[in-house]
Amino acid sequence: MPNLRDLVELVVRDLSVAIESRPSITYSGPDGQGHVEILVEDGSGMGVGFTVDPTASRADILYEMAYRIPDAYVELYAVGLPLVPGTERPATPRVVADTAVWEDPGERAAWSCPVGDYRQAHAGEREGD
């Protein structure tokens, strides 16, 4: 079973490019269906929660987190998905070949990077400008 804390950290690391604050993350469960609740809270105690199935594949859990945690960031910090480098388009999460990735949703999307590697991919893109 994947370590949920490590997977959450990959997503939070990518989202922390846009803001300085880091939320507190708490875990509870499993519930009656075996799901774990993840609660994302800001410094004021305001929180947004969601559940994941810890028995799912690593890629599927990471996809769910990459889909849900940015929603929490929108609610808590008024920022969300990481931006596709060089654009104002938000990247979207997707599972490709058993890997959760951020990708450009544009028609001629050529950019993508694994969830957790956004900071490195973004820096590489900036150096290539």
- The helix content, as a percent range, equals 25-40%
What is the beta-strand fraction? Answer: 15-25%
Number of helices: 3
- The general outline is globular
Average pLDDT figure: 85
Radius of gyration over C-alpha positions, nearest whole angstrom:
15 Å
Low-confidence stretches: none
Indicate the structural class: alpha+beta
Major pleated sheet = 3 strands, antiparallel
Number of strands: 6
Major β-sheet strand ordering: 1-2-3
What is the H/E order? HEEEHEEEH
C-alpha end-to-end distance: 40 Å
Describe the structure.
The chain is an alpha+beta fold and 129 residues long. 33% of the residues lie in helices and 23% in strands. It has helices spanning 4-15, 58-77, 118-128; strands at 24-28, 36-41, 47-52, 92-96, 99-103, 112-114. A hairpin with a 7-residue loop joins strand 1 (24-28) and strand 2. Helix 1 (4-15) packs across helix 2. The longest helix has 20 residues, at 58-77. The protein is globular. The mean pLDDT is 85.
Condensed summary:
This protein has 129 residues and is α+β, with helices and mostly antiparallel strands. 33% of the residues lie in helices and 23% in strands.
Descriptive terms for the model:
129 residues; alpha+beta; 3-stranded antiparallel beta sheet; 6 strands
Ordered list of secondary-structure elements with their pairings:
Blueprint: H1 4-15, E1 24-28, E2 36-41, E3 47-52, H2 58-77, E4 92-96, E5 99-103, E6 112-114, H3 118-128
Antiparallel strand pairs: 1-2, 2-3, 4-5, 5-6
Helix pairs in contact: 1-2
